[in-house]
Amino acid sequence: MIAHAVVFYIFSFIAIVSAIMVTTSRNTVHSVFFLILDFISISCLFIMIGAEFLGMIMLIVYVGAVAVLFLFVVMMLNVAQQKNEWFVASDSSSHIPIGLLVSLVIFSELLIVVGGWKYKAELQDSININLNLNLTNTQSLGNVIYTDYVHLFQLSGMVLLVAMIGAIVLTFRKRSGLKTQSYLRQISRERNEGVELIDVETKKGVKIDA
Amino acid sequence: MPEYASILFSEVLKILMLLVPVLVSVAMIVWLDRRVWAFVQKRRGPNVVGPFGLLQSLADALKYIFKEIIIPASSNKVIFILAPIITMTLALISWAVIPFSEDFVLADINVGILYLFAVSSLGVYGIIMGGWASNSKYPFLGAIRSAAQMVSYEVSIGIIIINVLLCVGSLNLSDIVKAQENVWYIIPLFPMFVIFFISALAETNRPPFDLPEAEAELVAGYQTEYSGMMYAMFWLGEYANILLMCALGSILFLGGWLSPINIFPFNVIPSPIWLILKILLLFILFALVKAIVPRYRYDQLMRLGWKVFLPLSLTWVVLTAGYLMYFDLLPGN
User: Fold this and answer.
1) Alpha-carbon distance B257 to B247, whole Å?
2) How far is A127 from chain B (nearest CA, A)?
3) Considering only CB atoms, which chain A residues are within 8 Å of B79?
4) Residue of chain A whose Cα is closest to the Cα of B4
5) A143-197 pLDDT, tens per residue?
6) Does domain A1-78 have CATH number 1.20.120.1200?
7) What secondary structure does DSSP assign to A4-34, as a single string?
């Protein structure tokens, strides 16, 4: 039990410290690396409470895919130029009111969530839930998602699909003048289109690209 | 407290008993790779150090250890040093869930296959970190290429794994092997095995998909600035990953530790031997592909991943699910 607590505190400490470092480190790439560390320690916490499926999915989706794309974007930015624009004291003061507003909203939301949780008596007591301990939590999650909540599940799938198509449509552009390979044209080409036999007269030569 | 200490000691011993053979076999597999490559090209390959050149990798390792580690002045030092360590660690921790026989597995966890998939999806960080921290153009280009490549091919590997899981009904690797007692999944899911093999080549940056390294155009990609032991760690991690992909392929499709037919001369051979033989078979295929196939162009690589493998494997998921549903073969009811 003690070992469990020690490991729990280690992971939570790493999670909190790296969350603070995400916002305070000057180098944007370092911020993303701390974000990844944060994700990893959170998924370790998930695994510690026995939610191994959620922990692994968190690793695969957030660390394996989302954070890689973050890193991609951040590495492409010109960090030196950005630093000058964002962190100069006279300039950054214009961001303070908006930042304050956003953080105020988030803070009040947290307050409402925690307060509501404390005072709502009907909220389900997690200790007294009737659990079937023979099922692994992957199975029990599947039993809930694909039966009671199947419509919500499919709806969220549709939302993701729409977002994906939207992203493709927004960024897709056809540029002219690019030399691209067309497999169809390559395969359907016949010999008489590509090869031509020419009798070359001596000392006259032949113009090929006529 | 003493029982904690004894538990700790026995666990560490178990881990060492797994990791030391893995590291030794990684060294041996490098030799095998070079030998196969040489034989295809009618060369001799490494044959001087030790019998048949078997000790060549040890000699190489010794050379790497005594070389100076050079850290470029303009690099980001912490991340530069972390990158090979992460590559190596990730390549080794995945071996924890590989079952060598019915009860010879370090951690028999419920979500073993997800764990393997998660760890292999983290593998890209070693390369990105190395490429970015080097603060040099070729490594950066190599890292960007490799990240895009690994993310793309992971998608198709994930969907192929879903195909197998549909037939098994469990995420546990031992259950996956046990489900193949009657028929190995290479027979009903043969197209998926082919796609898995090719995706595994791309995922481990092997030829013909070794664009991150592409020595002709990118010098050596993300490894350009590395030297000495740090280079060797990248290299060991890469080969450990290749072995792991071979192990994953033999567990998913070739029946893991099971013998091909359950009759006398075959079933007396201990099960770990069967798994090792299957891993070696897949690895020799990897080595042969390296010797006989020219490198892909980058747009061809991306096209193959997204426009060919992804639709094919998705269609196969629908087909498998439909077949199992129609004939009422779905596991777990």
Assistant:
1) 10
2) 23
3) 33
4) A3
5) 888 888 999 999 999 999 999 999 989 988 888 888 877 888 888 888 888 888 8
6) yes
7) HHHHHHHHHHHHHHHHHHHHH-SSHHHHHHH
